[in-house]
Specification:
The chain has 394 residues and is α/β, with parallel strands linked by helices. Helices cover 43% and strands 12% of the residues. It is built from 14 helices and twelve strands. Helix 9 links the parallel strand 5 and strand 6. Helix 3 packs across helix 11, helix 6 packs parallel to helix 7 and helix 12 packs parallel to helix 14. The protein starts with a helix and ends with a helix. It binds pyridoxal-5'-phosphate. The site of pyridoxal-5'-phosphate has 13 residues, from helix 6.
Length: 394
């Protein structure tokens, strides 16, 4: 066996462990008495057009075509529809042959990293970060360089970033709106990042790719701008998925977009496709490719997430929790009420309140609350949050 893979396969994810614990407790005390905020599984149904499209495709399409292999990068009609949507929405000159459809953002990220990195290259990541980045980067033979969190506003600590960039830097991953902080990078932050990377590219004479991991792009709250990175920095690759915007995480559909502005874009696209081949990912789920093509201009009704965010921030702040106000996503990332976030998560767990410690995201001293749950569960959980806070006041 490959030792590293064995470790990945055996490693217990704290999030999954909490989720399983919640199920066990629900069997004992009843589902309504467990306040499970562990998993980022969307709580709203996909828009009705998704099922309508699936029914129509099943009724109207030759089954051998519908369920057959598509071309390796994806069905050309679906890619054409998605490209047209990106042109309309962001003013980019995206074409179908710049899109590589994947099984979700996870596969998109893996294809980009394996396609771009040579062994020993460095990939910069900002804490707090999606923990799977480490696995994908390592599997690509690269080394992760972690920029410590800027916990005031969850933007970027540029001094720390400058110290970590090196001639070995191949790529930088940004995730905005961010899991787990809920923060959205401002235009000023992204412009400063773009200028810094431009400068280092020129200094070192090779491209530094910006990988924009944006499954939460559409979950941005009123008045919050989510700038489109390919408009700010030429060497940007976009990793997208409909897991959150259309509430389809189990269906596994997303894409890599390699804009024409990327240096040597055709070769970069070919390397991404080659990585897809090497990883055995060719041909994303073909029914879902067509669904994505037909539904890429719409979203599920995401309004409940903003409602939940407001409720939680208002009520938890009154109880003494320090909560950065999320600009989007369905995550809140308050400070733990004791410095040890794991001990705090354990104290919450004793009350059947399931919060994920921040250290797994590279940001100790915080916990993640995944509020993609019915608002009614949040309302019921408030006295429990108050009880937990009360324990620290005594
Ligand atoms: N990136 C981030 C920041 C995520 O939070 C997730 C999933 O939660 C992913 C990537 C993977 O998304 P997908 O389910 O589309 O593979």
């Amino acid at each position: 066996m490959n030792e590293q893979m064995l470790q990945y396969g055996r490693a217990r994810s704290v999030i999954r462990e909490l989720f399983e614990y919640g199920n066990q407790r629900a069997a004992v005390v009843g589902r309504e008495k467990v306040y499970d905020f562990s998993l980022g599984n969307p709580s709203v149904a996909p828009p009705p057009q998704v099922n309508d499209t699936i029914r129509r495709l099943l009724d109207e399409t030759d089954p051998c075509l519908l369920h057959g292999y598509t071309s390796a990068p994806g069905d050309p009609v679906a890619r054409g529809q998605i490209a047209a949507s990106l042109r309309r929405r962001f003013g980019v000159d995206c074409t179908a042959d710049q899109l590589y459809l994947t099984a979700g953002a996870a596969a998109a990220l893996s294809c980009c990293l394996l396609g771009l990195c040579e062994p020993g290259d460095e990939v910069v990541v900002f804490a707090p970060y999606f923990p799977e980045y480490q696995v994908f980067i390592h599997t690509a033979g690269a080394v992760m360089k972690l920029v410590p969190p800027e916990t005031e506003n969850f933007q970027i600590d540029f001094d720390a970033l400058e110290g970590l960039l090196s001639p070995k830097t191949r790529a930088v991953i940004v995730n905005s709106p961010n899991n787990p902080s809920g923060a959205v990078y401002t235009r000023a932050t992204l412009e400063r990042l773009a200028a810094l990377l431009e400068d280092r590219q020129n200094r070192w004479g090779h491209p530094i790719y910006l990988i924009s991991d944006e499954p939460y792009r559409e979950i941005a709250f009123a008045g919050v701008e989510v700038p489109y990175l390919p408009k700010l920095y030429d060497n940007t690759l976009v990793c997208y998925s409909w897991s959150k915007s259309l509430s389809l995480p189990g269906e596994r559909i997303g894409y890599v977009y390699v804009p024409g502005s990327v240096e040597d874009s055709e070769a970069v696209y070919a390397a991404v496709a080659g990585a897809g081949r090497a990883l055995g990912y060719v041909c994303a789920p073909s029914l879902l490719q067509r669904v994505a093509g037909a539904c890429c201009d719409m979203t599920a009704d995401l309004s409940v997430y903003e409602e939940n965010a407001k409720l939680l921030v208002t009520e938890l702040t009154k109880m003494g929790y320090r909560c950065p106000v999320p600009g989007g996503t369905f995550y809140l990332f308050p400070q733990s009420l004791e410095p040890d976030d794991e001990a705090f998560s354990n104290a919450a767990r004793e009350l059947d309140l399931l919060l994920v410690p921040g250290r797994g995201f590279g940001c100790p001293g915080h916990v993640r609350i995944a509020f993609c749950v019915p608002t009614e569960r949040i309302e019921r959980s408030l006295p429990v949050f108050a009880k937990l806070a009360g324990r620290y006041k005594r």
